[in-house]
């Protein structure tokens, strides 16, 4: 199956190649050059189409308490206009998805899922809502999602947005607004680690908003970027991706996402299993590696405990590429816990060669997150 976003025609006309990815959507790989697009987003401003993401509308008197019973993060104090990041887990504590929850009103929320599992998440939430005064509607097909990211993203939005004060919008907050005559929802968030905004747009008007943003952003240096730049941008920030890094056999403790689990005075799906995992510990953790190589390794390449020929296999790579901003070849990998200490010397089998690798602190870039909060 092949799915297309509302902006497919633009991408097909301007991208070098279309790639099939999460949710069976085809997306542009790059428009000019992936390294250039990466650098422009870090230093200037870029725009990507993330209409592959899933959007679920959750309404009803029990909407808030219902969602709070599914998410590992506590939503009870979520304010109207605020966004919260969380994971949802199965009864075994395995991650179904990592997602964001938008509170539109006490009885109205929007849940934004990853691309790959969006239909499964929608079905799971719908099943869990049975018998409750909460109603889950998959509105993904009606929503397009251009995202504007980079140090000059605020300037771009300020030049086209009406009905909202973009400059006053805080990190992980959202507001209704207009771009031309199109009613949109603008969220200050993103997947690059830069100051950035997500523009939730009616699918039937997506081409108008995309064109307006391109036109307004051109004097400020705005350029579209594709999946390849998205991957290297998120790699430098060690942001996980469903499929490569996340699946239901892994828990938030494996991922280092346990800081968002709120156990106190509440119950949620997977709580008991996660408590047991917390007490027992995990055998493998997701860590960052710096490679002694100019060439990235591949998904599932094996990680070894050292550079010796007989070094034990202790993990596998989930993603690797050049970190264009930091000037190093990077990887994320699941590694046996005894070998996860910062500075540990490991190696990776890649294309018949043994590549030396060192466990490094993550994020590799802007570890304090000051750029996104600019």
What would you say about this model in short?
The protein is an alpha+beta fold. Helix content is 21%, strand content 32%. The chain is built from 9 helices and 21 strands.
Write the layout of secondary structure elements.
Elements: H1 8-14, E1 18-20, E2 26-28, H2 34-43, E3 46-49, E4 54-59, H3 63-68, E5 83-89, E6 95-105, E7 108-113, H4 118-128, E8 135-138, E9 143-144, E10 146-149, H5 153-160, E11 161-162, E12 174-179, E13 182-187, E14 196-202, H6 206-217, E15 223-224, H7 227-236, H8 252-255, H9 271-280, E16 284-291, E17 302-304, E18 313-323, E19 328-336, E20 345-350, E21 353-360
Parallel strand pairs: 3-15
Antiparallel strand pairs: 1-2, 3-10, 4-7, 4-8, 5-6, 6-7, 9-14, 10-14, 11-12, 12-13, 13-14, 16-19, 16-21, 17-18, 17-20, 18-19, 20-21
């Amino acid at each position: 199956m092949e799915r297309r976003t509302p902006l497919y025609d633009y991408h097909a006309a301007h991208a070098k190649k279309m790639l099939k990815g999460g949710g069976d959507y085809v997306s542009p790989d790059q428009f000019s050059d992936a390294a250039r697009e990466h650098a422009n987003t870090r230093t200037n401003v870029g725009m990507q189409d993330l209409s592959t993401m899933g959007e679920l509308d959750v309404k009803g008197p029990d909407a808030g308490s219902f969602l709070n019973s599914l998410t590992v993060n506590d939503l009870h104090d979520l304010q109207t206009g605020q966004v919260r990041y969380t994971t949802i887990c199965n009864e075994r504590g395995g991650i179904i998805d990592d997602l964001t929850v938008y509170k539109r009103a006490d009885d109205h929320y929007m849940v934004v899922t990853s691309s790959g599992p969006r239909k499964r998440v929608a079905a799971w939430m719908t099943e869990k809502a049975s018998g409750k005064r909460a109603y889950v509607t998959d509105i993904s097909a009606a929503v397009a999602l251009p995202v504007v990211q980079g140090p000059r993203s605020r300037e771009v939005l300020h030049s086209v947005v009406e009905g909202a004060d973009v400059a006053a919008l805080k990190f992980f907050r959202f507001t209704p607004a207009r771009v031309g005559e199109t009613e949109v929802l603008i969220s200050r968030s993103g997947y690059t680690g830069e100051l950035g905004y997500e523009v939730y747009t009616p699918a039937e008007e997506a081409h108008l908003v995309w064109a307006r943003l391109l036109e307004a952003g051109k004097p400020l240096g705005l350029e579209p970027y594709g999946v390849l730049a998205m991957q290297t941008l998120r790699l430098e920030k060690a942001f996980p991706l469903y499929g490569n890094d996340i699946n239901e056999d892994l828990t938030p403790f494996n991922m280092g996402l346990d800081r968002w689990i709120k156990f106190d005075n509440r119950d949620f799906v997977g709580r008991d299993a996660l408590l047991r995992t917390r007490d027992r510990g995990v055998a493998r953790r997701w860590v960052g590696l710096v490679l002694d190589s100019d060439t990235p390794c591949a998904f599932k390449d094996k990680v070894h405990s050292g550079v010796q020929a007989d070094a034990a296999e202790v993990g596998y790579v989930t993603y690797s590429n050049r970190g264009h901003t930091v000037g190093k070849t990077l990887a994320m990998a699941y590694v046996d816990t005894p070998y996860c200490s910062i500075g540990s010397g490991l190696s990776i089998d890649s294309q018949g060669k043994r590549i030396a690798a060192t466990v490094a602190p993550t994020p590799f870039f802007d570890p304090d997150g000051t750029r996104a909060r600019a």
